[in-house]
UniProtKB/TrEMBL annotation:
Name of the protein in question: Enamine deaminase RidA, house cleaning of reactive enamine intermediates, YjgF/YER057c/UK114 family
InterPro entries for the chain: RutC-like_sf, TAT_signal, YjgF/YER057c/UK114, YoaB-like
Record carries keyword Signal: yes
Keywords: Signal
Pfam short name (any one): Ribonuc_L-PSP
Record's signal peptide: 1-37
PANTHER family (alphabetical): PTHR47328, RUTC FAMILY PROTEIN YOAB
Keyword set includes Signal: yes
Highest taxon, organism lineage: Bacteria
Length: 160
C-alpha cells in the first residue's frame, strides 16, 4: 500500500516550490521598475549662478551627478611659463574648493601650451600639485595658440 503521508509531503513541497518560483519571477519582473524609482534623478549645477535673465556663453564649472567639470583657466598677464602655470593651478584649486572638491579629487587634466617648447618648464611647476594618485593628463599645443595671450591653459574633471 502506498504511503499517503509521503504523497502529501511531496505534493506540498511541489506546491511550495512552484509558489516560490512564481514569487521570485514576479519580483524579478518588478526589479527594473523598482530600481528606476530608487535611482537618483540627474542633477546639473553651474557656476557662477546666472543673474535673472542673464544669458551666458558657457559656465566656469558644471557639477553633474557628483562629477565636476571645470572650464579652461588661463593666465592673462605678462610672465614666464612657470608663473603662468602656478597661477592657473592656483585658480583651478580655488574653483575646485568653491565647488566642493579638491586637487586630490581631480581625475583628468587637459593642458594647452601656447608653445610646446614650454613643456618641460611647465612640468616642473605642475609636479607635486596633486597628492596621492595624480590625475591622467593630456598636453597639447594648439596650432592657433592659447586664447588671450596666456602661455598655458588648463581644464579638469574631478569628483565631489
Amino acid at each position: 500500500m502506498p504511503n499517503l503521508a509521503n504523497k502529501t509531503t511531496r505534493r506540498n513541497l511541489l506546491k511550495n516550490a512552484a509558489g516560490a518560483a512564481a514569487a521570485v519571477t514576479g519580483a524579478a519582473a518588478l526589479a527594473p521598475s523598482m530600481a528606476a524609482a530608487a535611482a537618483p534623478k540627474e542633477q546639473k549645477q553651474g557656476w557662477p549662478k546666472p543673474k535673472d535673465g542673464e544669458k551666458r556663453l558657457f559656465s566656469s564649472a558644471v557639477l553633474h551627478n557628483g562629477t565636476l567639470y571645470l572650464a579652461g583657466v588661463g593666465a592673462h598677464f605678462q610672465g614666464t611659463i612657470q608663473e603662468h602655470t602656478k597661477h592657473v593651478l592656483d585658480e583651478l584649486e580655488k574653483q575646485l574648493i568653491e565647488c566642493g572638491s579638491s586637487m586630490d579629487k581631480v581625475l583628468k587634466v587637459n593642458v594647452y601650451l601656447n608653445d610646446l617648447k614650454d613643456y618641460q618648464a611647465m612640468n616642473e611647476t605642475y609636479m607635486g600639485r596633486f597628492t596621492g594618485i595624480p590625475p591622467v593628463r593630456t598636453t597639447v599645443a594648439p596650432a592657433g595658440g592659447v586664447p588671450g595671450n596666456s602661455l598655458v591653459e588648463m581644464d579638469c574633471i574631478a569628483y565631489v
